[in-house]
Amino acid sequence: MAKKPITAMLMHPVVRDELFRPDHLDTITRVSHLVAETPFREVDAMAEFLPHIEVLITSWGCPRIDESVITQMPKLKLIAHLAGSVKGFIDDAVWRRGIQVVNAVAANAVPVAEYTLAAILFANKKVFALNKNYLKYKENRAPWSKEAPNVGNYHKTIGIIGASHVGQLVMEHLQRFDMRVLLYDPFTTPLQARHSGAHKVGLAELLSHSDVVSIHAPLLTDTKGMLGARELALMQDDATLINTARGGIIEQGALEAELVKGRINAILDTTDPEVLPPHNPLYQLDNVFLTPHIAGSLGDETQRLTDFIVAELERYSRSVGLKHLVRREHLARLA
């Protein structure tokens, strides 16, 4: 029988308390030798175990893993990050040493894609506008053709900006509906787009032809402010813009100006800044639906992150290929 890899957890203890179920720890201790069930907060606290650690489970509250740290862990072969992005805390020295890195981005994409699908369906069904109308007049004005022209999801066109984990899942969900899907992503080929049930187009074409535009690109230097006044002006009248990615992808001033006009609608889970000032006009607009960055994992959904990482540890213990590897060459275009 293969020797169990010596494993340690490096994260804020609250993460373990909130994200780990008893069966998670049972599995970890079954497939590895966990040096302590209480996570370490600092690398120095692990000093006696550092020369022997093969697997490091990290999450929120983890200090930066740089060359000075990994030189103390000569046997380290896997960093399993129980969260999303690894940028900012994993140094390039990790990749140079050939240490494998996995994360739970794919797990967190699930609730974001679910939120997005619900937002798309509600946007086309004019749920938010008709709710306000019903509360105001307290009567059924079916078929609502005056209050909600072009209502319904049948044969609507959905524009997806970014074939990220979330974008891919959203496109997968949309294949079950009678909708046309357009995709803008510079790194996706037309063939790959077709395999996702979408048609690859330029950004201008997507914006001008979509009933709903949903953003799933990472916030990078190239994507910051990619939707400004000129781009927003291309959107169809009464179209809906959904943002579950990062607020900085849209120029906030241009977005507010366009929404104040009432020409388009927006469902925004993220803004720039993330919490808008108290007197921001978006709080009062009937064509805007705001949520406080809740699309990602909340409550028991966070345990899916642990499910994914524990499953990776099981694969590692069996010397089976890992499913959620973070590739060094992809870092530049990852969030």
Q: Would you tell me the overall average pLDDT?
A: 95
| Total beta strands | 12
**CATH level 3 topology of the largest domain:** Rossmann fold
Q: What's the CATH first level of the largest domain?
A: Alpha Beta
Going across the biggest sheet, name each strand in turn.
Answer: 8-7-6-9-10-11-12
> Which structural class best describes the helix and strand composition?
alpha/beta
Q: Going by CATH, what is the homologous superfamily of the largest domain?
A: NAD(P)-binding Rossmann-like Domain
Amount of beta strand:
5-15%
Give Rg in angstroms: 23 Å
**CATH structural architecture of the largest domain:** 3-Layer(aba) Sandwich
List SSEs in N-to-C order.
Answer: EHHEEHEHEHHEHEHEHEHEHEEH
Task: Note the total helix count.
Answer: 12
Outline the biggest β-sheet. Answer: 7 strands, parallel
- Report the principal-axis shape: elongated
Distance between the termini: 40 Å
Any idea how many domains?
2
Furnish the topology, listing elements before pairings.
Elements: E1 6-10, H1 13-19, H2 22-31, E2 33-34, E3 55-58, H3 67-70, E4 78-81, H4 92-96, E5 100-103, H5 105-124, H6 127-137, E6 157-161, H7 165-174, E7 180-184, H8 190-195, E8 199-200, H9 203-209, E9 212-215, H10 229-233, E10 240-243, H11 252-261, E11 265-268, E12 288-290, H12 303-317
Parallel strand pairs: 1-2, 1-3, 3-4, 4-5, 6-7, 6-9, 7-8, 9-10, 10-11, 11-12
